[in-house]
Design goal:
Helices cover about 65% and strands about 5% of the residues. By secondary structure, it is mainly alpha-helical. It has a two-stranded antiparallel sheet with strand order 1-2. A two-stranded antiparallel sheet has the order 3-4. Strands 5-6 form a two-stranded parallel ribbon. The protein starts with a helix and ends in a 29-residue tail after the last helix.
Length: about 425
Amino acid sequence: MATKAVISFLIAMMLLTGVCNTLLTKYQDLQCVRNCHSTDPEKIQRFSQPVIQTAQMFIGELGCWLVVAAFTLYRRFFAKDAPLLYGGYEQVGSDDSTVVDATDELGRTSSTREEAVPAIKPLIPNTDERIPLVGWRVFLLAMPACCDIAGTTLMNVGLLFVAASIYQMTRGALILFVGLFSVVFLHRKIYLYQWSALFIVVAGVAVVGLAGAIAPNPQAQPKPPVPPEMSLLAIRDAIKTAAVSSGALQTIVGVLMIAGAQIFTATQFVLEEWILEQYALEPLKVVGWEGVFGFLVTLVGMIILHLAIGRTDAGRNGYFDMQEGWREITQYRSIAVTSVLIMISIGGFNFFGLSITRSVSATARSIIDTCRTLFIWIVSLGLGWETFKWLQIVGFALLVYGTFLFNDIVRPPLKACVERHKPEPLLQEEPIEHI
């Protein structure tokens, strides 16, 4: 019972921190930093610093080292005789129920006591025969960190142009690229019904993007409900005018950037899988090391881009103006506070997510991700950041069905598509999104 309560708490905190991360980032994007009292909306400038937001993410990941340090101190001074905290077990006496070793489908050993404390799993190294990821080998994690930089920055730029819910839904395209890269580089096998699921996901992303193009204003005020037959006419008329609407064009560009960013995120996952198949390291330390490399590379990139672009006349007050970004953070309290909260939410999301990723099934993880998107959508509607769109429901339904079908949560509609053997997981190490 205690274990179920712990897992329930971890799932709730993962949902809370995941939802807060996206909503806080969007809230930060909506803060006015120049010409705030202008009557011309075109002259109002809002916070647009996607590179700084990427650095915030890595600072949040660096916070994972605080948890690692606290765990190390506790293990050294307060729990020297607790084998659980060392990741090992010693049988005492002849009672076989004291420690029960088991081997999972990946050949990794575990115990019922370890299963009973899911909150510390990210802090316990693997007990198999893989080589420890120490010394110079740690620099291998710089590769997925660089992919994380590219993917996160592109997504942050895309979030400037779309609503928070559309941003979160478009990220569902990740499963498409993870599937393709797993087949090409990791030599995994994907069955026919899983290929069809990937096409359904693509269709869902396209429909979500169309819904955003029809009503592109992320701060649109809710309007009176419209009958379904009138909505169809509005969709037809909106499609005709979408091509000439600058707002629609920005939304389409934002959706494409977010979807394209999933290529880098999928590459990050595949690289992590390749590294962790050969080397052993505590999951939370993987995040911590990627935070170190990611922050350093981002900081160097920010300096170079500021000197090359940000301080020029064309780049001043733009994405790469490091001096302007620092001014906005220090001058506007709302931006500074949300920056701190974003760092905390990212660190918490990584810890809580890693704590449950090996404690629950793939079904539960997919449902958690779906709930996260749904909550972001509901809160955005409640805050008036976007309007309700029936077409977005269709796209979201396609995304959920395609993801569930791919992960074998729902059965394929045709019996001929059902395989006799259970499909092999694409990523054995079960990576978790860092944002």
